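User: Fold this; tokens only.

Assistant: Input:
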Amino acid sequence: RSCLVMAGSRADWLFAVLAVGMVGQATLLAAQLAGRPAAESPPDPDPIPKIATVSREAFRRHAVAGTPVVVSDGVAGSPDFALAGWTCDRFAKEFPQAQMYSEYGKLNELSERFADRVTKWVSKRSNKDVLDLLHDLVDESQRLKPRSTPTDNDSDRLAAVEAEMVALADAARPEVAEIRRSGTRFGGGGIDNFPPDEYPGLNRLIRWLQEIKLGDAGWTSELIPQVEDFAEARGGAVGDAPAFGPYYWDFKSSHRPQPDDVVAKFKSLVSPLYFLSTTQENVERIQRNVELWFGAVNGSGALGHMDPHCDGTLSIQLAGTKRWRLSPPPFFAPKSHKQRRDEDWLTDGSYTHFTDNGGQWAPTLQVVLQPGEVLYFPPGYIHETMSVGDECTASLTLQFSDPFPAGYYRKLLPTISRTGTIHECWGPIKAMATVMSLPPAMLKATRTGIVDGKRVRNTAARIASKIDSDGDGVISATEMTDFLRQANARDRVSTEDALGYHDTNGDGVLTTAEFVEGFAEWVENEASIYKGYTAGRGGKQRGGGNARGDDDEEDVEDDDPDEDQDEDEDQDEDREDTGGDEGDRDEL
């Protein structure tokens, strides 16, 4: 009530309601910011707030801050959104030849097993022919596919399957011959060995086991079980995780290409919702990153996982009802080292990987989406979905670049910068924090773990004074734009993102003091990562790169540690006078 009384405008009232409704979420985030793990035995998930008739500016504040929210009139308020009300049956009717795939379930496991076997076959590590390999798995896949149970009276269908299998295998043989002729070697198994632009025949052959056409009968009501490893991982605090896998129709993966006419038709149906920016860049980003998820009645869905992308995500519920459970990235102590780039937390069957102590994952947020509702959540959030009800669920998921979650990255910097799954976001964070103007001495501090807080802030203050050209202590959008242009950094960081990252109190005004702290915090955090990394390796660092393994090409000029600090700072200032070129070369 106090929050509501204090709220003076409609927008302030909205954010006051959100603050009141996310107590558990705020507790976890506060614990992260305070540098300590969240309390044991967390409370039941909080409901994600639902809002309506939200302005673009109000949604921008949500997205920049990374606050999960549901826009209840997201579809109804967007008259140009052509997919409103589309059901699973409507998609099957409009796109009968489109290829979707069974995700997380046993069909997915079969496809991965076959990919491993094909890798051995093309490398001459297996004496079996590809058709023999297929025969080992195809009967099992046909039993799992909807309405595809082999019977004595199903000879025509099985003959068609056999003919298609032979045709696909024959189409792949020339590629195999070329691989063997050239002596190409593969580091491991998996579909990633055979991208469609290089090996279209092998890629298509492997995907075939997992593929289901939208026009196939039965998929809207029949369930494909999760693999046993995933089933064993469900339990404890997770409890009622989905027991069956969803269907996935992908428009953004180069490993799962769709026919050109299907892509063109579908893109014509997708447009930004009313609260999103309609710049050409944003529209193209949205249409380029579309995924469709279908859930055959109650109990199917995606197991808890973290995605690797850096933009915010929207999930648009088109038909049926779906439960979402989410939580922020797992806590990392500020003095710990980062994960390796390949040490990700994508779903591998164990919910215990989502905690810092091996315990069961405990979601902090939950919502059941109704048709027409839209869920927003930021990068790095662990999320799980499950269809609830007797209707096939259809939802569209996409990422958008504007607005960017700049403030969210600043608030959770210690955790985000140590989470390997989203390592692609480390570069954009560095660009926002340093505005591409990191002097060599500061870069050296991040690589040695030796940092002088006063010196870092003095350097940041000089950069801030250059940005603040009128000297009023406030960095305006015009001043930031001019500085980034002079530093040749506009293609690496936008004015809006730089302001959003450093405006820590979210009042829309960036002071030079806020910039100084944001710059210094990034440098000190990187140095802390280095210390944690070398401590974990007995004080030794691998190779010649920094603690992240970024291997910046620019060599850092050594400073004499015995030189007077003021002289060092003068040298730093001379380097900064280049307009950020040193930082540009280092980043590039």
